[in-house]
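Hey, sorry to bother you again with one of my protein questions. A protein chain has come my way and I'm curious about its shape. It would help a lot if you went through both lines with me. I owe you a coffee for this, so here goes:
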Amino acid sequence: MLVKNEQKHDLIVYKVKQGGKTLKQVLVDELNMSIRFLSKLKKDKSIFVNNQFQRYDYILKDNDIIKIQIIEESSNFEPENIDIQILYEDFDILVINKPSNIVVHPTKSHPNNTIANALAYYFKTKGENVRIRFVNRLDMNTSGLLIVAKNSYAHHILSEDMKQNKVTKKYLAVVKGVVKEDFKTINAPIYRETDDSILRSVDERGQKSITHLKTVQRLKDSTIVELLLETGRTHQIRVHLSYIGYPIIGDELYGYVDEDLIKRQALHAIELEFLQPRTKEKIHITAQIPDDMQNLINKLRK
């Protein structure tokens, strides 16, 4: 079992309840460590039993204390003093409420002023050597919940949970047109049109993509909808809503643009539910609707 008060972002401390298993068996079966991760730990010589380095074939005894030091490279982003809203943080992860009009990590067109730069500054001020890894991604003009792993162990566990659809991701969007159905599942493959294009489209050559839609409120010429992702393709919600004839208001690529209403796509990652990668405790987080989307809804209700 985990020794809770000794956990750190770069240290896992585990107490063996019942001996007889090898060190490797416990790390794989009880801490869900991958063979690749174990290879890194072996290379770093960072696994200790009762404060002594041990091989993976070591037979554990009752009440042995396993300590795993997670050795990370330095931060891979330049620190910048940018305000971020942190909604949750523990030794493995943090969850932020990302504003719109900021990219998640540097690109050629946006080399700085990103969420990654802000996080590098945050961890630097805390004196923590964290290599920033994003578990989920949000487009520049999508707001809402973003999970950041503080170590490679947490990133691996949560990435696998994402692949197995164990992470609940809900979004809120405002679309053009009045949606007829109360509930609808959009099962349509998404394809990248060309290698040098950011555009995606529904195409049989694409990857399996599933979005579940729930109508929240019908307005005069628009609808507030909640989206639950079963898969996580680039631009999935935006492409799917456009495909069924209800484009997101403000979406310059796939939607309906009216800058008098809103100056970005009306899409917000509103809710997350997942298991803490180390303790397996359930974490449920919501992010309030941002002002620009609330103002849009107020205008459309008139």
User: Anything to note?
Assistant: The domain at 4-69 is CATH 3.10.290.10 (Structural Genomics Hypothetical 15.5 Kd Protein In mrcA-pckA Intergenic Region; Chain A). Helices lie at 23-29, 35-44, 115-126, 152-163, 236-243, 291-301. The chain has a mean pLDDT of 94.
